[in-house]
Specification:
It is a single chain. The protein is α+β, with helices and mostly antiparallel strands. It has two domains: 31 residues, no CATH class; 62 residues, no CATH class. Helix content is 31%, strand content 27%. It has three helices and four strands. The strands form two sheets. It has a two-stranded parallel sheet. It has a two-stranded antiparallel sheet with strand order 3-4.
């Protein structure tokens, strides 16, 4: 999987799945939802602090998509952080 980017929804954000992807030397994007307790809380807190400081100290990627269909409008916003030192602030991280 070297050179690949693996994307998976929140259902797949489990330690063993992430470890398998990491050990295969692939890049990955994992979703996080509110029912993931401390992980969601930590990520929300990090973004809240950065947002309050107008993102002066954190490098992040942002994308917004808008799609229409099935009698609705879907707006999705994505923020990504890949700095290992920054990610090391999350509880339970090994970084």
């Amino acid at each position: 999987m070297t050179g690949c980017i693996i994307t998976i929804d929140a259902m797949g954000t489990q330690t063993q799945i992430a470890k398998t992807i990491f050990e295969a030397d692939a890049d990955y994007v994992l979703s996080v939802k509110e029912n993931q307790g401390p992980l969601f809380e930590d990520i929300s807190a990090l973004f809240a602090v950065d947002q309050a400081q107008d993102f002066k100290y954190a490098t992040f990627e942002y994308t917004k998509t808008v799609s229409k269909g099935h009698a609705r409008i879907d707006i999705r916003e994505y923020w990504g952080i890949s700095n290992p030192a920054y990610l090391g602030l999350l509880r339970g991280s090994e970084g």
